[in-house]
């Protein structure tokens, strides 16, 4: 167990380093410097700027300087938003993304597990069909189609909810984005739960529990549920990474001032440092999240002993 | 029925030469029996055909403006069967041309990522040991990366040329195939029928060609149909975010993005490309399911 944990943690470091290095090199391989604007800058200003951002140094030195500042939690300065550091921009955007992502993750897990359990226990029931419809729809209607349709129905036709925007953590503005992210994730959790529970219900110890004379409810709650959750935990990592991707689309569709919107805007404005900083940040979060999930998985499943 | 009539019939059946069915004939028959899969395949072929030759047959160009009919609802006038967008361009032709781009990027990126995945997985599976371990750790690493962000970064930095979009998508779409092929290669390598083939003196190349490759192809075919929608989706997402192919060129993702902007006043501009994309994805999924059922010999 400890050796597995250690190996898994050690694997994380090269993953992060490779991503950061590749992104950094990509950034430097592109033609054109960050200050080659349409407006010509005077030579002195350019020299000052280059000195400030260490652009005159050799590449390896710049790279090490960047790594050093990363280790100190400094993502650098934005090239497009004057007077803003990437850190400032991230700190403003992060609460939005975390709120939307966190709430929808919890909802997706709770609803998905509930739906999956009902679908597994009552196969071919309405709940089972509902799960099947959601998961089929999820594979055919991408988030950037479902999102606009939600806006069309609930904001434009019914006028129940605002079509987009944020308005400082107002609940009414959160409903549709959270709903979209939940719809995207709920089918995955539901399908895994359903499959897992069906498998567990066929095992010998469940038959033993029934043979003891326990009611179906007790068997499911006390004996079946815990082993059912093990595969569900294992999808939370990929799900979270998928949510980050989905969040980029969701924030674009609903014009939310979150991390995803920041990345897309940064990419459109060719704000290299901002995009690089955000990619590095999100990758670190995703890789660490994956690590935690993997460790939790190994810890939860008594059959897995590394 | 009298016994006398049954026995000659039976004898004539037994007298017929025994004709074996190859696994492929078998799979084709089972696929043909799956109505939903066949219908989906037909729809897919029709959409592909329409995208390929439709723009040549229709009188409107995808980038020319009909000044008299801007934001027109679907109409028979001037062949604007899907209506026109807010700059008066014919939506039907734009959808078809966009479909060309989406399907071409989808097809090419699938081909490259499937090839990469097969080669990667087969090498890892056959060689085994440390090489296998190292190669699979790289796959693990790729899984942990939120690919869309790196894709955004790559497209931003490298540019939005057609082949660069294909490259970007390929980099993040090959891992599933690599994992599956490796697993299958490992499993097949230790199967009894391989041992049996070896025991009766089949050569190594014979074993690979007759026993390993056919057993690999089934799963490769299935996972290819799983890869295609993912690849098309990635392209659409990039286009939707304004990071795919550029104006006046278009793709389904770009068209959906355009439609979202005007959906309050002209919802059909969103609905037609969205419907085309969804129908295509749905059909590919059905074909994939059909293939899985047809190619899995255990599940009859």
TrEMBL record, chain B:
Q: Which UniProt keywords apply?
A: Cell inner membrane, Cell membrane, Membrane, Peptide transport, Protein transport, Transmembrane, Transmembrane helix, Transport
Question: What are the annotated GO cellular component locations?
Answer: plasma membrane
Record bears the keyword Cell inner membrane: yes
In this chain the ABC transmembrane type-1 domain maps to 99-288
The protein's topology relative to the membrane is: Multi-pass membrane protein
Where is this gene product found? Cell inner membrane; Cell membrane
- Pfam families given in the database record: BPD_transp_1, OppC_N
**Residue ranges of the TM segments:** 36-58, 101-126, 138-156, 162-181, 216-245, 265-288
Q: Which InterPro entries match?
A: BP-dependent_transpt_permease, MetI-like, MetI-like_sf, OppC_N
Its main localization is: membrane
GO terms in the biological process aspect are: peptide transport; protein transport; transmembrane transport
- Report the sequence similarity comment from the record: Belongs to the binding-protein-dependent transport system permease family. OppBC subfamily.
Protein name listed in UniProt: Oligopeptide transport system permease protein OppC
């Amino acid at each position: 167990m400890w050796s597995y944990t250690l190996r898994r943690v050690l694997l994380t470091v090269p993953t992060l380093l490779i991503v950061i290095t590749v992104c950094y090199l990509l950034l430097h391989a592109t033609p054109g410097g960050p200050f080659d604007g349409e407006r010509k800058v005077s030579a002195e200003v350019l020299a000052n700027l280059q000195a400030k951002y260490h652009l005159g140094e050799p590449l390896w030195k710049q790279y090490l300087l960047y790594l050093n500042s990363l280790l100190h939690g400094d993502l650098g300065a934005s090239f497009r938003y004057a007077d803003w550091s990437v850190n400032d921009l991230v700190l403003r955007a992060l609460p939005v993304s975390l709120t939307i992502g966190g709430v929808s993750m919890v909802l997706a897990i709770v609803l998905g597990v509930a739906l999956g359990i009902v679908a597994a226990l009552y196969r071919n029931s309405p709940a089972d069909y509902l799960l099947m419809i959601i998961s089929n729809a999820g594979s055919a209607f991408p988030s950037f189609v479902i999102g606009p349709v939600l806006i069309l129905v609930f904001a434009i036709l019914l006028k129940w909810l605002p079509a987009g925007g944020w308005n400082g953590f107002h609940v009414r503005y959160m409903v549709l984005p959270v709903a979209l992210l939940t719809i995207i994730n709920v089918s995955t959790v539901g399908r895994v739960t359903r499959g897992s529970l069906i498998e567990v219900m066929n095992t010998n110890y469940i038959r033993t529990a029934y043979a003891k004379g326990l009611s179906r409810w007790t068997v499911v709650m006390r004996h079946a549920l815990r082993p059912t959750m093990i595969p569900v935990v294992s999808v939370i990592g990929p799900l979270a990474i998928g949510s980050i991707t989905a969040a980029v689309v969701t924030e674009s569709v609903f014009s939310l001032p979150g991390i995803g919107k920041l990345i897309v805007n940064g990419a459109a404005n060719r704000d290299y440092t901002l995009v690089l900083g955000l990619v590095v940040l999100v990758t670190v979060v995703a890789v660490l999240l994956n690590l935690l999930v993997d460790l939790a998985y190994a810890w939860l499943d008594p059959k897995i002993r590394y | 029925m009298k016994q006398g009539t049954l026995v000659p019939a039976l004898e004539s059946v037994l007298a017929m030469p025994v004709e074996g069915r190859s696994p492929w004939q078998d799979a084709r028959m089972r696929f043909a029996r799956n109505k939903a899969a066949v219908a989906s395949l037909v729809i897919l072929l029709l959409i592909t055909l329409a995208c390929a030759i439709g723009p040549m047959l229709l009188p409107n160009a995808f980038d020319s403006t009909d000044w008299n009919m801007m934001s027109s609802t679907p109409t028979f006038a001037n062949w604007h069967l899907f209506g026109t967008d807010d700059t008066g361009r014919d939506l039907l032709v734009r959808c078809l041309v966009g479909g060309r781009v989406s399907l071409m990027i989808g097809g090419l990126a699938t081909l490259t990522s499937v090839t990469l995945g097969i080669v990667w997985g087969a090498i890892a599976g056959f060689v085994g040991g440390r090489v296998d371990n190292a190669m699979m750790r790289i796959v693990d690493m790729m899984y942990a990366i939120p690919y869309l962000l790196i894709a955004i970064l790559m497209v931003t930095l490298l540019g939005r040329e057609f082949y660069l979009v294909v490259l970007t998508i390929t980099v993040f779409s090959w891992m599933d195939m690599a994992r599956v092929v490796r697993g299958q290669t490992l499993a097949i390598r230790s199967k009894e029928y391989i041992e049996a083939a070896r025991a009766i003196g089949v050569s190594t190349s014979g074993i690979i060609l007759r026993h390993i490759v056919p057993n690999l192809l089934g799963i490769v075919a299935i996972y290819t149909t799983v890869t295609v929608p993912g690849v098309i989706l990635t392209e659409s997402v990039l286009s939707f975010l304004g990071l795919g192919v550029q104006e006046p060129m278009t793709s389904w993702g770009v068209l959906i993005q355009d439609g979202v902007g005007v959906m309050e006043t002209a919802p059909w501009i969103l609905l037609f490309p969205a419907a085309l994309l969804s129908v295509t994805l749905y059909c590919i999924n059905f074909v994939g399911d059909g293939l899985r059922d047809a190619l899995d010999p255990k599940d009859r």
